[in-house]
Write a structure and sequence with these properties.
Chains: A alpha/beta (260), B alpha/beta (373), C alpha/beta (408)
Low-confidence stretches of chain B: none
Structural class of chain B: alpha/beta
Number of domains of chain A: 2
CATH architecture of the largest domain in chain A: 2-Layer Sandwich
Low-confidence stretches of chain A: none
Number of strands of chain B: 8
Mean pLDDT of chain A: 90
Mean pLDDT of chain B: 95
Strand content of chain A: 15-25%
CATH class of the domain at 17-154 in chain B: Alpha Beta
Oligomer: heterotrimer
Largest sheet of chain A: 5 strands, mixed
Structural class of chain A: alpha/beta
Number of strands of chain A: 10
Order of helices and strands of chain A: EEEHEEHEEEHHHHEHEH
CATH topology of the largest domain in chain A: Nucleotidyltransferase, domain 5
CATH superfamily of the largest domain in chain A: ATPase, nucleotide binding domain
Number of helices of chain A: 8
Chain lengths: 260, 373, 408
């Protein structure tokens, strides 16, 4: 049975086609726009094309993510917390704590040994500690966000960003640039700042090994290193961290269809 | 009377406290707004005044910024904003009770900002334990009553108090029955109706509230079994008029089965045993208490665990209107107590907002999903 | 005698003496078990005379919080509490206290654990919640003195209630301390307390002198003995000497900032981690803080040995912070006059709601009635994260411009 998971995030749309609840047939990631339905349709089309599967062959569709309520093609919508839990445990069954830094929020999820979500905490009040924080800074620094991980490797010193608020931190970055502070040092400092916010959030739960990092920001190795430093523990990134939500949704779709 | 659609009535009334005030003013009846559920309504009612609960509704705080810093309690700021926007211009008076560090200066600032408004304060103790605080509570109540006489022109009539007590106790009984019926008929009595019914009691003359609620409650068979499919969530917190959380619980196949909220069970808990001044004061001193009061170091914990057990609660949501110090102090140890009993919990803080929130939706959905596996 | 006289504030013998007194106090407290003395944690507005009379060692978590702030350890300790689930919006003294209790990290390696706690809520309702938390943590008895806020002034009902509680509390204190309460000892302690308060009052008044021999930031440090050891002879002797030394400085026009172009009054608790820097910034503009409402809060009580319960009740129930906003307006106006001030600075302290709410109205009303301008700065007393150098310095600069304009 073929199932489809759709993760409608605030920054990107992810779709993943799954066979028998365990074999990934194809997947797509695209930047979203104000026409999110259109982007989603294009994503689904592309995924189906890559897999050589037609739409009517899909047994069940589950949507997750920020925009899940408006997903017209899904038969069910499930929270991204449950989906990240399921997707991450499937990819890495040693995962007991999941850190997901999304575009607009960050979450930390505790899993039981059987992969069930037993607790979670979300930061959704403020941009610092989310992907947004780094996006804003990428603009200010005129460095593409995708290069942050590489660039920060060259950092000689990690600048201390004292402001916790994104808006004030941006001004701080600009004045650091004016003082000729090397960009790699600033970026390393930003990674440290976001990591300390996220680990502070994580400490509200019991942080248990293995710790997994998912979401778009997981592609930035600089953030992962900073998180490890802040947590004092090693942090693993599952394969295709950005697709974990869609994967979890597709697995859920399979479980629901099997139960019917 | 059964033809009336009680849910529609409850929705209409609970959404518009100002309309209720206006309707009483058209009938030329005196109305006092009160800021805290420790204001002893029975006395106001017995003295011929209709007490209406004041809960901040303003979501865009601008004028109140001149009086309260941003780190001030959401309830105080939005209520001040409402007053500055003239929302409550029809009230005959405003009654405060001693509550917390934010309400305390609010009283002073309110008085200076609205010098023409009739404002009085019931300075109940922060301690609820023992006879010494009780003795003071009674003495202070008598002093308070004398200040209300300035408005009514006559003292409290004990015969009228006896009649009021019967009405108020009846209202409490009816709300208790509604909560019990909700567990048996979750479709006909959706979770939001619990909140709305408490608000109806807070916004209207309780005789009317009873007249509408009683036939509705009577229309259900008592000996039906309780629902076993829906997961039972309990809300614990301060003041809330946000219906979304109740609706979300229902939507995701769970229910808000019970609560320890000021706009919930704490409001109607505990009957008045004796229709005297002392008897009424005792009810307020003895009922399950707000975090801003002290009975002993474990009183809220004991109450929470007992209620959770009695109602077979599957999960607890600490639902706080933002910047509430007393509740935030209690939270970690209360959570620990629940963890000890294996009851999962989640903490959600909101600001004054009646608009639907994607974040609240995600949290509730994830929580219910977590309980359901 | 002449060369024994101080040449500057920093040379005062009282400075060294203060350090010694506080060191000895904390050392003795940590060794309380050796002296067979019980330890009681008490709030800054609490009736410490009772403890001294019972031979119990008082410990002030608030004083410790000030030390933590001054040593810039506030944020790290508050963070510990936040990780335990305590909201970042709660009082930073409380959060730091939880942090130090759990980690034993602090300028004095953590406070000695209490045998029991005595909480008086005349300063705020937060202390009641704070002490509940810690009493659970340490599993010790908590005794509460509930002093209702003076919404309508001091009503006889209010005074009776507090007086009744004193009668209730004393047997309880006897029980938990294992000591007998004697009126004789209590009256002796009360007399020392009264004397210390009178002396403290006189010391603060010395700053009416132009130029003032000390700033209110200095007063915040000299405050420690009257808060922590009120009722002992040590404190009386200490303040007698301090008064002498400060009087000498004043008489000889020796001041830390002699060209007081702008004399200012401070409102609310200090920003413990920024005092030196703020002092310097202000002095660069010729401004200096000569008086404040916080230290003056300890210049008020008066216990009458003939009616001890009633006067104690009144003393503790009507302290500055327990009185309504109207009285704080009057008090500020009085202080501005007393200290011949040109303006005032209000610390909008996010950790202290009862003190900070009302400031906006007080500021407007005081300026309206006196014509003197006021400056609000938003910060926190102990948590360094709630402070922005640029923001505050910009505001100070703008305020100074306002003061300059009035000079002309």
């Amino acid at each position: 049975m073929i199932t489809l998971g759709v993760d409608l995030g605030s920054n990107t749309v992810k779709t993943l086609l799954l066979n028998d609840g365990r074999d990934v047939l194809a997947s797509t990631v695209r930047k979203t726009s104000h026409e999110s339905q259109k982007v989603m349709d294009e994503c689904v089309e592309e995924t189906l094309a890559k897999a050589g599967v037609s739409f009517d062959k899909i047994g069940k569709i589950v949507a997750t993510g920020y925009g899940r309520v408006s997903c017209k093609i899904a038969q069910k919508e499930i929270s991204e917390i449950t989906c990240h839990g399921k997707g991450c445990y499937f990819s890495m069954n040693s995962a007991r704590t999941i850190i997901d830094i999304g575009g607009q929020d960050s979450k930390v999820i505790s899993l039981s040994d059987k992969g069930k979500v037993i607790d979670f905490v979300m930061n959704d009040k403020c941009a610092a500690g989310t992907g947004r924080f780094l996006e804003v800074m990428a603009q200010a620094l005129q460095v593409p966000l995708a290069e942050f991980g590489e660039v920060s490797k060259k950092a000689g010193t990690v600048v201390d960003i004292s402001n916790t608020c994104t808006v004030f931190a941006e001004s701080e970055v600009i004045s650091l640039m004016a003082r000729q502070e090397p960009k790699e040092n600033i970026i390393a400092g930003l990674h440290k700042a976001i990591a300390s916010r996220v680990i502070a959030l994580a400490k509200r739960l019991r942080i248990e090994d293995d710790i997994a990092l998912t979401g778009g920001v997981a592609l930035n190795d600089g953030v992962r290193r900073a998180l490890e430093a802040a947590a004092g523990k090693s942090i693993k990134v599952p394969a295709n961290p950005q697709l974990i939500g869609a994967l979890g949704a597709a697995i859920h779709a399979f479980e629901i269809a099997s139960a019917e | 009377m059964k033809e009336e659609n009680y849910p529609e009535f409850a929705q209409e009334v609970s959404h518009d406290p100002i309309a209720q005030i206006e309707s009483y003013k058209r009938q030329e009846r005196p109305v006092f707004g009160y800021t805290c559920s420790y204001v002893i309504e029975e006395f106001l009612d017995a003295m011929g005044v209709i007490p209406v609960r004041l809960i901040g509704r303003a979501t865009n705080i601008q004028a109140a910024d001149r009086h309260f810093q941003a780190y001030c309690c959401s309830q105080v700021r939005s209520l001040m904003e409402d007053f500055l926007n003239d929302a409550y211009k029809s009230l005959d008076g405003v009654i405060f009770a001693h509550t917390c560090d934010s309400m305390q200066p609010f009283h002073d600032i309110f008085k200076r900002t609205f010098p023409k408004v009739f404002v009085k304060n019931l300075n109940l103790p922060s301690r609820l334990d023992g006879e010494v605080p009780f003795k003071y509570a009674v003495a202070e109540t008598k002093r308070f009553l004398r200040t209300i006489e300035e408005f009514t022109g006559k003292p409290l009539d004990l015969a009228k108090l006896a009649e009021t007590v019967i009405v108020y106790n009846r209202n409490r009984t009816l709300l208790e029955r509604l909560y019990a019926l909700h567990l048996k008929y979750p479709e006909q009595i959706p979770s939001r109706l619990l909140l709305q019914s408490v608000l109806v009691s807070q916004y209207r003359d309780k005789r009317e509230a009873n007249r509408h609620l009683e036939p509705f409650v009577d229309s259900f068979k008592v000996d039906a079994p309780e629902d076993t499919k829906r997961k039972r969530i309990m809300l614990v917190g301060n003041v809330n008029i946000n219906e979304e959380i109740y609706d979300l619980a229902d939507e995701f196949g769970a229910m808000i089965a019970d609560d320890d909220m000021c706009t919930g069970r704490r409001y109607f808990s505990t009957q008045v045993a004796e229709p005297t001044i002392e008897g009424v004061v005792r009810r307020y001193m003895n009922r399950p208490h707000c975090a801003a009061k002290h009975r002993d170091n474990y009183s809220r914990q004991r109450y929470l665990l007992e209620l959770a057990e009695k109602r077979r609660i599957n999960g607890v949501i600490f639902f706080y209107l933002k910047f509430c110090d007393p509740h935030c102090f209690d939270y970690p140890d209360l959570k620990k107590a629940l963890d000890g009993k294996g009851i999962p919990s989640q903490m959600i803080e909101v600001e004054q907002s009646l608009a639907p929130s994607g974040q609240l939706r995600t949290k509730m959905q994830a929580f219910v999903e977590m309980l359901s596996v | 005698m002449a060369d024994q006289n101080p040449k500057a504030l920093k040379d005062l013998k009282s400075n060294m003496r203060l350090r010694k007194i506080m060191q000895k106090y904390y050392l003795k407290a940590k060794l309380s078990w050796l002296f067979r003395k019980k330890i009681c944690w008490i709030t800054s507005g609490g009736p410490v005379e009772l403890l001294i009379a019972l031979g119990v060692t008082p410990i002030y978590p608030e004083n410790h919080g000030a030390m933590i702030g001054a040593m810039k350890m506030g944020s790290e300790l508050c963070d510990v509490a936040e990780q335990m689930g305590y909201s970042r919006d709660l009082c930073s003294y409380f959060r730091a206290d939880v942090g130090q209790a759990v980690t034993k990290r602090s300028p004095i390696k953590g406070l000695p654990r209490p045998d029991f706690m005595l909480c008086c809520n005349n300063i705020c309702g937060t202390v009641l919640k704070w002490y509940e938390v810690q009493a659970r943590y340490y599993n010790v008895p908590l005794i509460i003195l509930d002093t209702p806020y003076n919404y309508d002034g001091e009503t006889p009902e209010l005074i009776s209630y507090v007086s009744d509680q004193f009668k209730e509390i004393i047997p309880e204190l006897e029980k938990v301390s294992g000591r007998k309460f004697t009126e004789k000892k209590f009256l002796e302690v009360a007399e020392y307390a009264n004397e210390a308060i009178t002396l403290w009052n006189e010391i603060l008044s010395i700053c009416e002198h132009v130029p003032a021999p000390m700033t209110c930031f200095d007063a915040f440090f000299y405050l420690a003995p009257i808060v922590t050891l009120r009722g002992t002879k040590i404190v009386v002797d200490y303040y007698k000497d301090l008064k002498k030394e400060l009087t000498y400085l004043a008489d000889n026009n020796i001041a830390p900032f002699p060209e007081e172009r702008f004399r200012l009054v401070w409102d609310n608790l200090p920003i413990w981690f920024k005092m030196r820097r703020l002092s310097k910034t202000l002095s660069n503009y010729g401004a200096c803080l000569v008086g404040d409402t916080y230290t003056n809060a300890w210049a008020d009580n008066d216990i009458n040995p003939e009616k001890p319960y009633e006067t104690m009740a009144r003393a503790y129930a009507t302290i500055y912070l327990n009185r309504n906003v109207e009285s704080r307006i009057e008090n500020m106006i009085k202080m501005l006059k007393k200290y011949k001030a040109h303006g005032f600075v209000m610390h909008s302290n996010r950790s202290c709601k009862p003190y900070s709410f009302g400031q906006l109205d007080i500021k407007d009303e005081v300026t309206r009635r006196t014509g003197l301008p006021g400056l609000m700065i938003e910060a926190d007393m102990t948590d360094q994260r709630s402070y922005s150098d640029e923001q505050i310095e910009t505001r100070i600069q703008a305020f100074i411009e306002t003061l300059k304009e009035r000079e002309v």
